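Running log. JK asked me to keep both predictions on one page so they can be read side by side. First protein, sequence followed by its tokens:
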Amino acid sequence: MPVFDEKHEELDHYETMMGVPRGRLAVTLDTITDAMALVGQHGVYCQSQRWPGKPVMDIQIVMKNLTDAKELIQSVMEELKKN
């Protein structure tokens, strides 16, 4: 699994701090946040012709899905924290 090799240091840090499940979710959140930043930058250059000042529809959809994924992961982390 290449992601475990690539993110080894981050995983080790967060898993030590928060435990394995929450640590892996924390690294996942960081990865999604990085993806959101890249998509957001792309959205600056790909503006909608129909709605000036807004990114094209596919970028809006990707950003919504990434935002929803982050929210779901955060809710799982909170549930794990309670237990």
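And the second, directly underneath as requested:
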Amino acid sequence: MAGTTHLFIPGPTNIPENVRQSMNLAMEDMRAPDFPEFTLPLFEDLKKVFSLTDGRVFLFPSSGTGAWEAAITNVLSPGDRVLISRFGQFSHLWVDMCERLGLDVDVIDVPWGEGVPVREYAKRLAADTEGKIKAVFACHNETATGVCSDIAEIRAVLDEAYHPALLFVDGVSSVASVDFRMDEWGVDLAVSGSQKGFMLPAGLGILAVSQKALDASKFSQYRKCYFDFADMIATNDQGYFPYTPATQLLRGLRTSLDTLFAEGLGNVYARHNHIAEGVRQAVQGWGLELCAADPKWYSDTVSAICVPDGFDSANVVKTAYHRYQLSLGVGLSKVAGKVFRIGHLGSTNEVMVLAAIAGAEMAMRDVGIPIEAGSGVAAAQEFYRLNNRIELARAS
């Protein structure tokens, strides 16, 4: 088909041309004497994205799931008690991993559309006077439902209970797109991946680790090899890796970081909020609802949009793909057939997202959902027109 197939799933995201070109290079020697001149600044610059001063960032040739496993097996031990909440497919997968790795998992199930239940966390932490809970897990941005939770609130309840548990955060679909403050929020391990806000292909599991968590890793009783922090530290300190790294992805990551820093991380976060609000205005214009149950949960990287009763959201996604060359996110697990998702993270702007809104609108009308033609597009257009980021930046 002619033209471009538009990608608006919540990852992999669109790759900017400068990032793509930076990966189009010949293979290089990952043990060359000058390789550390490239890698050592890369490690340090990654810490800036996480707002991490001490500690370090590991880069594993894996998905974000690999970084999850590295976080658990390096810092905890089999049988350790952990507190976690489940309110979407990806928080569910994290629960599943914890259980399969032999942790004692205290799961709080929450309606899909809500986020981390901070008050319930507070109760369980206050009741744990013997300190049996070794770690608290929180999914910052639940990609399946378009829900974002407040990590600062979780740190507050940990502090109020004077609880020493480590704080694990899934930031796969938030880091580099949504404000993330690892030091300020007292996050000990933060997981991300290359294919979301870092605007790269999948293939890098990115794991930021506090000094507290590094110290705790010395006492972990898990057996590990590929994901062993000690092996990574011994070689990373010299600018190398214990096995063959994904050198082309690392070159792309360098360009991605340079692009993010050139825009300014604060501007990146403001842009994502601005783009997301336009999508939310479109949903309101259609007369539909988001899966996120309250504005406090709204995600700035993905919107999960509920279709009316009697309609299958999978048909919307299929129609958009086959008729309009538009990839939207499907509903997963409990919300399969009930929602479709528009990913609006990474390298996006207003006109790009308007194409996704227009395509979704046509696909919904094609499958019989009773929305008015142009209603969502017009609502988003007016929001973007009246809140133009470039004009506002010039005025300031």
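Observation for JK regarding the second prediction: The longest helix spans residues 265-286.
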